Amino acid sequence: MQWWACRRQDRLNRGDVSAIAWFLGNFLALVSLSSVVNLESSFSLIPWFALLASGSVFQFPRLPGRIPPWFWKLSNVLLVVFLVIDFVRTEFVQALINLNVLLILLRSLAYRKKWEDMQLILLCMFVIVISGVLSMSLSFGVHIVLFSCCAMALLFVINLRENGMDMAVNAETFQHFSWIIFVQHIWRKMNLRHFAFGLFLFGILISVTAVIFVSFPRFHMGRGIPFLQIKSATSYTGFSENVKFGEITSIKDDNSVAMRIDIPDVANFPSAPYWRMLVLDYYFNGHFGVSEDAKARREQQPESNRFGYRPLTLNQHYPDLGEEKWTFYLEGGVSRFLPTTGVYRDILFQKQESFFFNRYHHTLNTEDVSPAVQFYQVRGMSFADKIPDPNITSTLTPITKKLLEDPDFFSPAEYPATTLVVPVNDEERDYLKESVEKIRSRVPDNDPVKFAYVASQWLASEHIYTTSLNAHTGSGDPVVRWIRSGDGGHCEYFSAALVLLCRTAGIPARVVTGFHGGTWNGYENYFMVKNSEAHAWVEVFDGDNYWVRVDPTPGGTQDIINLNQATTEVESFVDSSVTAYVDSLRILWYRRVVNFDNQDQIEIVNGFSITMEALMEDIRGKLKAFANEFKAMLQDPFNKERMTLFGVTFGFLFLVYLLVRILLSRLRARAYFKFFGTRKRKRIVQLKDRVLAGKLLLRYHQRLESSEASSDVLQSVSDLQIIRFGSVNRWPTVSPVLKRARKLIKTI
Amino acid sequence: MSHSSTNLSARDVQKHAAALKENISKVIKGKEDVVEHLVLCLLASGHLLIEDLPGVGKTTLAYSLAKSLDCDFSRIQFTSDMLPTDVIGVNIYDDRVREFSFKKGPIFSNILLADEINRTTPKTQSSLLEVMDRGKVSVDGETFAVGDPFIVIATQNPVDYEGTFPLPDSQMDRFFMRLHMGYPDFESEIEILSARENSYDNLSLETMITPEEVKGCQSMVKDVFVEDTVLHYLVKIVEATRTETEFRHGVSPRGALALKAASQARALYYGRDFVIPEDVFSMTLPVFVHRLALKRSTSDPLEERRVVTSLLRSICDSVPQPI
Q1: Of B215, B242, B257, which residue sits at a domain end?
Q2: pLDDT (tens digit, 9 = 90+) per residue, A640-663?
Q3: Distance from CA of B228 to the nearest CA of A (A)
Q4: Cβ pair A400, A448 in contact under 8 A
Q5: Which residues in A lie closer than 8 A to residue B275 (C-beta atoms)?
Q6: CB contact A5 to B (< 8 Å)
Q7: CA distances from A91 to A228, B158, B314 (A)
Q8: Are residues B98 and B158 in the same domain?
Q9: What range defines the domain where residue B233 resides?
Q10: Does residue B15 sit at the A interface (CB-CB below 8 Å)?
Q11: Do B274 and A1 touch (CB under 8 A)?
Q12: How many domains does chain B have?
């Protein structure tokens, strides 16, 4: 049975406090280590090992007591040796993080002294901030919040220890340790008021941080701190510059989100847009790639362009591109080619970026694969299926003619010509020609795009779409082999086949890889594209300055969907699963925290002032109305209607008040009943008096400690004692005693 | 002092107790707390074990109590060759009336001073068991009541002394309190030394209180009110001794009863007819310290007592008092 008074005086003892401090420190270590693990970079196994070791020590706090003392001496030497090697071997940032991880591990393996606790806090802070800056992921937000909670609590506890009780944990503290008993023990002694106070402090911290965050001026550091960069692991296969036929399969099983897009207007948004990333113009024996020539022609942008770029070619051909902003959040490690529709007015980066623009392919790539999320904003984007390439018509036409006359003619592998080369042997070429003839018979005029459409239909009639593939082995060109086999295939197969057919027919064609489709996240209103939505399709040259998109894969559609209209189609298109909800938290983080810039600041301030103005206006209006009402009442004070209303309202309020009173006293009474299992009302009244007297005694006790008590006070104390502890039969009249005591306490 | 046992009030008991204490303090100088505990023990009708080195005034204390109460007093000097019959008495065949007649031993009195109780064998020590519990003696199937009030004041030397038999736990548990005299302080010792006479027989003490009044006070103690939360507090302390891992065993319910009686006695001693937590708190140590033993064996019994005392103190500090 818990008596309320006992609860209040129960306090944590020294051992508890030091154990709590130790656990808090180790929890900090766990948080910071997990943030390093979360970096997902090729950092070796050290953070994993550290996390495991630190976690097991957290679970079994007896372990550090069993570490022999020579370990510590040895570890210092080993640490120095390891670091020297590490700094020579790897990048600066990696070595720095490794150093920190090892130091944190060593601290968390020991029973720490006070200064070691302080060290641990600093180390953890460093690690969390560094990994946060590197990854900029949502988990950084979680880590930093956990960190600030625990660090505050730890500092508080350390400070407690400072005040007169210096004790460190040691092996004896955890001799008979069990988590269940420890938690119960702490829970029993926990002072809820202190806990609430801690929460209050934390709330203040958060709000101050928020104010600073919103009001602090933004500046771009970007690559201003050059060593704060790490190289990511390689990008996904399929989005690199050289793709082997049949390689894309693996990515189809990856259901994680590859990019998120904030779209300006939900109306007239294509349900399955094509996000171009990479154009593969070169083909040889099952390998598609960007030809060396095309690579050489892409332009590295000058320093002045590093925050954004406006491709001039597009403005010429699409003069009516709008000003709407599309914000892309490309996940780290996907590719260094940035997905867009290929047609846009300009592109802006969040930080200074070193990038290349290939104006023949209309693709844009950064220097390295970004390890963290890559943000860029595209303005005036169009979903047209034509990409302009104005300068190649003159080059292409003569080559096409020549090639048709002499199929074995190989031009030097220069860019536009690479889109025409079919490097197969004669027998295969004959087969291809045969097929082309079959297709051509169904095309009325000589239009290249129509040919491509019909060829697609022909391929779809011969092959089914499937992602489970048979392994094709054999000699000769793998694409031709596939066309002949009649087996099923996926987008890559269809595209490759179409490219070869078109090229055989003398139509320049190239493979484009990227994403196709995506789902709408209704929680935060943005567009999600998953890795499994990676796709490959074909662009054919229409002989007149444009490359036209043709998707030979069966089921490839492009419908305009209006998200404002609730159709069944929209519903299937909107993702409202739990994973989508979790994902929406990330976009919130990117939008509101990471990408928070001057403009957002201005918007927030504006929004605030507008809301405030509206509020003030509202209040003013209400006050005026009230004043008018009041005036009317003064003019006619005894209006029957008003009086009734007044009476009814007053009566109702009074009734509510009474009800609440009764309910509260019932509840309180029930609490007492519960304690003593009795149902005598008289007893409860007595208990209340006892409680009151006890409280007054406590106050006396607190105040009398230092001063002399007068005889009046002594009398009052002994009366209170009778009420609190004495038999009811001997009680003096209660209320005057309490009254007198209250009065006397004030005088002390 | 003419009150009869029926209409005593708490104030009267306080007066009696204070007078008694003052009287004894005339002889036992500078040991206020020991004297207070002695008085409490009398009020709670418990038996007292005084333990210390020879010559610090154990026997004097017992004598002074006996002299202050106008009661029958007998003293047994325990030795190793003593038999239970030497304590209780013996049936002797009377040739004249041709039947056994019981010859009462020194135990038939009000105050029994069992001097150096640990010098005798366990057999003889155990002869005190029944009388300490019930105030009665059974000999050959016949029961005899001893004096009323009845209090045993036993003295003993520390157990590690040569030629002693440590009291068994069952015997220990029957003692209400165990007290230490300790050395007197400087001033008190000067006072002792400057006195002309220092033998027991010349103690100049008045009789302060009659056996009737003692009985009245003792029955008052049983009526002292113990409020629920205070009782909870008491039981929590008792429970804490049972869960403390260092102790071989916790305090028995008899011990808990003793603590309650001691707290009630203390309340009366301070003129209250109800117990406050402070009573329980301050009586825990003297009532419990001899009832507990350490799990790990110590070579030095004095060291063991010190550890037990400090553990008990920490228990008292850790159990929260009701407000």
Answers
A1: B215
A2: 887 888 899 999 999 999 999 888
A3: 8
A4: no
A5: 725
A6: yes
A7: 10, 75, 57
A8: yes
A9: 224-323
A10: no
A11: no
A12: 2
